[in-house]
Write a structure and sequence with these properties.
disordered N terminus; single chain; 9 helices; about 280 residues
């Protein structure tokens, strides 16, 4: 995050300075209040699975869920994803925190259906969206972000779109970092905020903060882009992960395909389903 302590002396002193630098970065990250969405990817049991298989399987499953209408069938689809999340080893709190971001939109859709089509339709749409969101969160939380982008490129997604996703995701944290730094600087100078949003000083502070955040973020964005160019960035996303489909990847893909096909067949009445 740009905070470094340099120490010239003994090896023990250098190690102590390194640990101090690491702890400061962690505390500042906690103070700024944000974590990357793939924070627990490497600790997940699905980390080493091929990202192309996870991406294709998840998209296919989400499409299948979008076609479901029966609440009993949707329940089993939701249960399947919840079990996979439990098996993956990703902390449930991490999933819940990210799910909470989209929950207001799910609630709004459910309430809209409640007043227009009844409680059964409201419950069905809430379960469809919840299952789809959890499936996507599972895929993202168990796959490093750049591996996901590389899988998108393998599926011939235009590089412009992948680069836009990459820079948008990165610059979100740049903005949050700058806001956190400025908030920390204000507190260190004794700033306590305005009395209310109608206070003139509060408006002045908000306007200054917005302006400075964008100015400082633009400067940091330029430095990040220069750093990418100095490391050989050419517009293509490259990682050290070897993309190779193994037997376990095939099993995962087959599991998703089989379940998706069975759920759709049950919805269409092709196969018998007991509610």
């Amino acid at each position: 995050m740009g905070f470094h302590f340099q120490y010239r002396g003994s090896y023990r002193g250098a190690c102590r300075a390194w640990h101090l630098n690491t702890r400061l970065k962690e505390r500042l990250s906690m103070a700024f209040g944000h974590d990357e969405i793939d924070k627990y990817a490497k600790a997940s049991r699905f980390y080493s699975f091929d990202p192309r298989v996870k991406l294709a399987s998840t998209i296919m499953f989400v499409i299948a869920v979008a076609l479901l209408r029966d609440i009993a069938i949707l329940f089993w689809a939701l249960l399947f994803i919840v079990l996979l999340i439990e098996v993956s080893g990703v902390p449930l709190l991490h999933i819940a925190e990210n799910y909470a971001i989209v929950f207001p939109f799910i609630l709004f859709a459910a309430l809209t259906m409640l007043f227009t089509s009844g409680p059964e339709s409201a419950l069905a749409i809430a379960m469809r969206i919840t299952t789809s969101v959890l499936a996507l969160l599972l895929m993202i939380a168990t796959t490093p972000f750049f591996d996901t982008l590389r899988a998108l490129r393998w599926f011939k997604v235009p590089p412009l779109i992948c680069n836009l996703v990459m820079f948008t995701y990165r610059f979100i944290f740049v903005l949050l970092d700058e806001m956190g730094r400025m908030r920390l600087a204000r507190k260190s100078r004794g700033f306590t905020g305005g009395r209310s949003l109608l206070d003139k000083e509060a408006f002045k502070t908000i306007s200054y903060t917005i302006g400075m955040v964008f100015v400082r973020s633009n400067v940091r964005a330029g430095k990040i882009y220069d750093a990418l160019l100095s490391r050989g960035y050419s517009g293509e996303i490259k990682t050290l992960t070897l993309l190779k489909v193994r037997a376990r990847d095939a099993v995962m893909g087959l599991l998703y395909v089989s379940l998706s096909a069975y759920l759709i067949a049950s919805q269409l009445g092709v196969v018998p389903w007991t509610s």
